[in-house]
Amino acid sequence: MANHTLPPRARRRAERGPSRSGLVLRAGFGVVAVLAIVLVVGLLVGGAPSPAAQQGGSGAGSAPVATAVDPASLQESTTYTTLQGTVPDPAPQGITDGRVAHPVRETLVHDAPDGTPIARMPVTQIGDTWLPVIGQQGEWAQVLLPSRPSSSTGWLPLADLDVKTTPYRIAVHLGSRTLALYEGGAKLAEWTVGIGKPSAPTPTGRTFLLGAFSDDQQQYSPVILPLGTHSPTHDTFGGGPGTVAIHTWPTDDVLGTATSDGCIRVPADALRQLTEVPLGTLVTIDEA
Amino acid sequence: MITKGTRRVKTSTFAGAGAAAVGAATAAAVLLLGSTAASAAPRPDSSAYVFETDGLLAISPTPYAESRDGEHDRQSVADVSALPLDGKPGIGLSALVAEAEGHRAEATVAEVNLLGILRADTMRTWCDGADGGSAGVDLLDADILGTPVNVPLEDQKFPLSPLLEITLNQQDRDDDSVTVTGFTLTLLPGQDRGRELNDKEKQVAPDLIGLVRGQLPDLRQTPLRTVDDLLKALSPKGDLLRITVGSATCALEDEEEQDAEPVVKRHEPEAGEAPRPEVVRKNLPVTG
Questions:
Q1: d(CA A223, nearest CA chain B) in Å
Q2: Each residue of A82-138: pLDDT tens digit?
Q3: Contact: A127, B277; criterion CB under 8 Å
Q4: Sheet strands (E) in chain B
Q5: Roughly what angle, to the nearest 10 degrees, separates helices A20-45 and B20-33?
Q6: Is A288:A190 a contact under the CB 8 Å cutoff?
Q7: What element of type H or E holds B205?
Q8: Facing residue for B115 by CB, picked from A26, A47, A280
Q9: What phi and psi values does residue A143 have, to the nearest 5 degrees?
Q10: Which residue among A16, A50, A80, A223 is buried most deeply as judged by most CB within 10 Å?
């Protein structure tokens, strides 16, 4: 940051030279001024600034296809729900071409192209909804879902999706307790991480970055990156649905250990980098 | 605007006009609770604010911005104007902006007029935690009681009166951070409290007490011989009144952090690229 050298200015008001008592009186008036400022500033400031949490806003709600199923009767596909009729991930350790999809309006999740609706996919859940595209048939995209069961998939009509690409991929290796970040197939960085303990293991399979949030009630990490997968042993945890996440931890001694309840604990630098990675980015978790 | 670096910035601005309904309550809360904005833990990487009063009356830092984990924060208030003196505002500040990103922070303000003592077209108080830390105050067309001040020295004091102390560019450092305070006006500084008031000070002291306490003192029961007498008469707790314009605090970057090159580049996504995630506020217990 440059220290600007500012141009000198012509002397002005040089004739002013109040006496000390004058200064004190000014200071006394200043106290009154502060009283007034309390009100003025209070009016100006109003409520405290807060990053807007974008929650709950469902889209236009147009169903893409005519169906006998009442969409209103379907659950949303979120980290809080458990769906019936989903399709298991056909390639739990496969990688994708990097496409990620954002529903531009609330749309229906189907069990197959032109198949049966099984859930509603909201536009936002933890920020905007972004899902990795793992396959395509005609005008339908197969995506990983954020709901239980883990590693479940569904089909969404492409007409309801904004499809982009991410060059990144995250690979978590439970055996070596490492997390690697790839860009375009090239490894950018790798960190030693903490993983779930044997009684509450980190689930394997492929999932994705579901969101990025800060939580005043979970002070161990400035930002938490929830994944679209869940603990296989904790149906609930701490009042939540057992969502597995990537986050930091107050002490570094957990790195390289299997001591968490399923989450992936990373060093601060890793979190700083991963917070820049687009939502929907694929995360593969294996035993290597 | 913080000028160093090319990181994509995320802006959350509040200009609190239109908050009249809560203004009075906010003002009352400010009076009762004092400064609370900087109390959150853990400590941010950097923070800045433009205006604050402390002591007899407390106004929280306004506007206040802080950066955690490299995030950019920018807060602003359109203007502060209060108490006409000689037909002009006794305190006038415009375009108050506090900005923090990573280990850099700055507070800028325009059209500064503080009780006719300090005037400046613009004032920028900044710090940078890189390379051991640096800080400073940039002034444009500034004077103190008519005497131009272009590049203030570090901890430059203006002993205008024993009862009134002005400091420019005060810098405080410790092993972890550097803090720069642009302009501080302290009414009744606590030093030399045993000093006898001179005749002029004794002359204006009752009026000053009347302004602050709401009633003139009974000089038979409240003798005003020393600075300490005056302090106790103004406030039984002996608090001072301090007005601050411009403050920035930057945590020092450690060498390891400086060496860690960001592997994920912050940039505006090009057409077809998925967007950088937005960190939202959310309470979602994860598996930890």
A1: 7
A2: 999 999 999 998 999 999 999 999 999 999 999 999 999 999 999 999 999 999 999
A3: yes
A4: 46-55, 59-67, 72-85, 88-101, 104-114, 118-128, 134-144, 147-148, 156-161, 164-173, 177-187, 241-251, 280-281
A5: 130
A6: no
A7: helix B199-213
A8: A26
A9: -130, 155
A10: A223
